[in-house]
User: Fold this.
Amino acid sequence: MTNHKEAQVVLRLDNITKRFGSLTANDAISFDLAQGEVIALLGENGAGKTTLMNILFGHYTADEGRVEVFGQALPPGNPRAALAAGVGMVHQHFTLADNMTVLENIVLGTAPLWKLGFGKAAARRRILALVQDYGLQVDPDAQVGSLTVGERQRVEILKALYRDARILILDEPTAVLTPQETDDLFATMRKAVALGLSVIFISHKLHEVTAISNRVVVLRHGKLVAEARTADTDKHILAQMMVGEEVAPPSVRAANPGDVLIALDQVSTPDRGSAPGLKSVNLNLRAGQIIGLAGVSGNGQAALADLIGGLIAPASGSLRIHDAAPKSWTPRAALAAGIARIPEDRHKTGTIADFDLTENAVLELYTKPPFSTKGWMHWQAARDFTQTVIEGYDVRCPGPDTRIRLLSGGNMQKLILGRVLETTPEVVLANQPVRGLDIGALTYVHEQLLAARDRGAAVLLISEDLDEVTALSDVIHVISEGRLSPGFERGALSTTELGVWMAGHGFEEEGGSHAA
Amino acid sequence: MDILDILISASFWTAAIRIASPLIFAALGELICERAGVLNLGIEGIMVVGAFAGWLTVYLGGGLWFGVAVAMLSGMAFGLLHATLTVPFGLSQHVVGLGITLLATSLTYYCYRLALPSVTSPPKIEAFQPYEVPFLSDIPLIGEAVFSQTPLTYLAFVLAVVVSITLYRTPLGLAVRAAGENPAAVAAQGLSVTGIRMGAVMVGSGLMAVGGAFLTMSAFNSFFFEMVNGRGWICIALVVFGSWKPGKTLLGAVLFAAFDALQIRVQQTPLGADIPYQIFLMAPYILSILALVIMSRRAQVPAALMVPFNKGER
Amino acid sequence: MRLEPVANPTLTRQLGLPALALLCTVVIASLLAMIAGAQPFSVLGLIVKGAFGSKFAALETLNRATPLIFTGLAVAVAFRAQLWNIGAEAQLYMGAVVTVVLGTGALSWPAFALLPTIAIAAMLAGAVALLVPTFLKTRFGVDEVVTTLLLNFVVLLWVSMLLEGALKDPMGLGWPKSARLIAEARLPRIMDGLRLHWGFGLALISALVVWVIQRRTTLGYEMRAVGLNAEAARFAGIPVNAVLIKTALLSGGLAALAGFSEVAGLKGNLTLDISPGFGYTGIIVAMLALLNPLGVVVAALFVAGIFVGADSMSRAAGVPTYLADIMLAFALLLMVLAIMLTKFRVRRS
Assistant:
């Protein structure tokens, strides 16, 4: 690969500072990107990576500092100028319109708005050429709403390439991919570099960073804390730089599995749009055991979580609680059965932003004494309960009357954790419990889940982070297109073998799936 | 007269297409707003403004087409107000829309009272006259029904084609549709969501006002209170009925108008004489509600309709 | 530009911005009055004087505020749960029709039994009128804004039909109006000699009851939760559709009480112009009150004052009464903007 010291500098970030209210998201950050180089931008959630890239791309205006592309200063706050200068960005959350075709999404904004027609034939030719050159297989005339996550990402990359991007920014691109798809992405990145592009690759997965990058830039709490050649570092050093302290992996004690609390037998649920439902799933949740669910997002995790959480009932097959079929299956029935639910999205489904902490804390409990009798609320009891949760689960907040909107993600999650664990549930459904949390909150949540297990609860951990699943789970199931693999004991399969299951192989010959 | 006789009479279809014309303008206007992601409940009031502005211009001696332009501009002014409050400020589109309807209506009535302090019967103007398209108007039935209308009616149908082509075949249309489906897609491609949405609301509001102007300049030839009479709300139903597609919306407007024209004629038959006239007047509104129920399952709502976009959101 | 949340808005911000909104409304109204050739300050003075300047004027304002409190509460309750009830006008007429049907001699009971019966029957009729669009929303996903709006026209035509048919007063000399209520079906005046009936008292009690429901009961908590975040409410096990239906019953019932109170308290019979848009004005009242039930009382008095004041101002200064509607429209738009700006700050991105 090219030696970056001699190569031309294509991008220079100079002293970038950005504040949101009292929070300094980026604090005087400077670094260069050279032609043909892959820089990995490494940092925890909330370290300021995405903010920095949004400034570079012109979505935000920096409070201080400047961005230079090919020696020219970029006018701030102008995505158009960034695009014109050759900066292409693949956002973490895809920016695609589902009701339009791949081609329409790609050409959007490339022609002057007042032009008549957008030259469909020429555009298709160009897209097909790019598909060839970069190995990004996708049908230009497909409706984006019908594409898989991997295909959508390829459309995002094509959007940048179609505009002749010379600098490609990929924001957490691998979070939604199987290990094999990640390899394909890396192949595309290598082709791009070979064709003279430069890449900034944002991630917090260390093995990926070491695999693809030439250089690593580490952000922590908005500051650039380290910059090194990838060859000069290793995962251990990088982890330390990213977190700022030695991270101890969660100490996992041996599990002591007990009775089956929830049993799914040949359960299927309907598909929802492009998200598959469950397909003849068998699963046993046992007391005192963490069951981990590995899989690429959008493969039926939501359906399984909704099923266990009481939001949907099986279309066929049976769901049994303590070996008895529930009469009706609603969120309230699930709560009555002792199932604690930590939802995937704490902002949208877990909490009500404009409710205060008290009102949020009793959201699942208000129907019963001491919080209400005969339809009358007892707010003092609710406030006392909230105070208990705040103290017991280390929720940092001004008090129970604070609107929950003002809390950080970690504290919000701790309140949810307290709300569900305070009732000593028999089953804990933890759906993406640490997504977006900093290392402190993350460790805390994991410890609480392990403590619940040790107390005898059955824990179902759903996560798109394979590392998290393998670190915590006693038994791992893989989900792919709504099918569930048999359960694998801790350490039974390597990451590669899990990846094969995640990509959807190994299910066919068995017809259905297996009990743990 | 038998209902079948009515349905094959040219005068019936002439009336249906005339009744459909203002609905086509206003429904296309609403469609443009909603395709960009903004529900415009100001439609009812903006139609009132358009009706008044067009009529007043001609009443004061302006030309007919100049009157249409004034109507459109005044509609766009209220569209700008609506868009400013709902797009960059992200206020509730329901509340702002209803507020705009109240404001537009009351301002219009205020101005009407100021302009004509002491009239009892509203003065008439020289309105658009039917124009018989050469040759085409000689076709039996269709010629009389379709090609002997006023220029504004022809404009309405041409506009439906223009809106359709613009939405599906031009870069601008792509941007508008994307803004209503996923505004982040628009922003990521270096376009301004705020600009596109505000532009769409203004243009859409301009068309609503032309729809209102049709009433005074091509149908009733004078301005009176309550003349819009819920047509704006019906147009919102028509857009849903048309699945946010210009062609289907136009078809819905014509069907609706045909039904309206039919009920007026049935009222005058012996059958109609036994039924209270209010039943006939209710029919269009009930029909709109039924259309909404029938279409509710199939309609593809723009995904970002009524969702404000704030790029600084964290 | 970008909107940035303000964590702890200062009191100045919370009070100053709404005050500024009202000030702007007054300035705009003055300018419009000037265009009409009147002295701006005298016009404002005339409005205030016309609304509160005499005992007669103040009582007139209270009478006018009464239906607005009911419709304002109806809208506030519904909007709180994100049920967009724009049909208070129709529900009002439903209540009025029931009042006339039961109150013109069909039931000859003593007042203490008759009045509550009519009130409850009226509420049920209003509730049913809102239940239809609510059911279409929960069952078919049809937007209730459009259906409630369209039903307003349908119900008004139906009332017109009744007044020319089944409910027509045989002694009415051909006018479309109903017979007069029997004495037992009339709401008594609060004090002898004062032109203020018990409908006003009922409105105040209703506001208090709604406030208690929202703050102290599980139903109120559920309605707020559904309104603020239906998805989270559903996840937590709150039966969202059932809550919406209960909300509709309450909202429709409150709006119907406006019709009951106007017929039984003020007018004594039903005509087609019994409501000059009280249902729609209720939306403004509710928004100005920030959907707070006690605030609704204050907002209704304010709005009624503007209407009553504008009537008398118009007679004195020759400025069209539509000035009142314009002021309210501006007050509404500027107020929602001001409230938003108390919570968010405008920043350059």
